[in-house]
Amino acid sequence: MTFQDALQACNLVAILRGITPDEAEPIGEALIEAGWRIIEVPLNSPDPLKSIEKLQKRFGDQALIGAGTVLTTTQVADVASTGATVIISPNANLSVIEASVSRGMISLPGVATPSEAFAAIGAGATGIKAFPAEAIPPMVIKAWRAVLPKDMPVLAVGGITPDNMKSFIDAGTNGFGIGGSLYKPGDDVASVAAKAKLFIEAMRRI
Questions:
Q1: Dist CA 200 CA 36 (whole Å)
Q2: What is the 8-class DSSP label of residue 100?
């Protein structure tokens, strides 16, 4: 599955910050059943590589699995060793982007300005993450869209809810990363499944 395939199937990235390895598979199954096709485990979660490895082994043929909060090239290598294919960062570290691309991985760095966006694109980023979206309103995304390559995916991450997604889509955003509104440490599978379906339904209404 390519990144474009995954986005076309479901343009939502699940950010499972704080998930434990024991929770990874049941939560992942709920997301897959709801239709999500990109799952991220931030590296500041408990034993994140184990969770990523479990998700990749179980769902790697159905979804793109990867890591978030990837800050170093060493971490890129660690994630690659699990078989996962997605590297997501809060910043535009060119070395991390280049290391990801050199391994054939999907690179989604965080950017907050046009300068960061173009630097990330120049380094080979697969897509860019407007982060934090609370500080980058739709009018800013619309302005970015006037100058960014038309085929460069832009995801909005941070503070996204079913109620504010339409304004970002109308401005030219291609998708979203959903964190605390989808999963918080301690959430049970049923509650995550219910929230996952709400986001899917909200996207269908747009």
A1: 8
A2: H
Burial class of residue 183 (count of CB atoms within 10 Å of its CB; 0-12, 13-18, 19+): buried
pLDDT at 13: 98
> Token pair of 37, please?
């096709």
Residue 184 is among the residues annotated as catalytic for this protein: no
Structure confidence at residue 166 (pLDDT): 97
Q: Which of 23, 40, 53, 54 is catalytic?
A: 40
**Dihedral (C-alpha) 67, 73, 79, 81: value to the nearest 10 degrees?**
170
The reported pLDDT for the residue numbered 146 is 97
Alpha-carbon torsion, ordered 90, 94, 99, 100, to 10 deg: 40
> How many C-alpha atoms does 89 have within 13 Å on its Cβ side?
28
Please give the pLDDT value at position 201: 96
Task: Identify the active-site residue in 23, 53, 54, 129.
Answer: 129
The residue with tokens 């043929």 is: 61
Q: Residues 85, 65: contact at Cβ < 8 Å? A: yes
Tell me, yes or no, if 129 is annotated catalytic. Answer: yes
pLDDT along the chain (206 residues), means of 10: 95 98 98 98 98 98 98 98 98 98 98 98 98 96 97 97 96 97 96 97 94
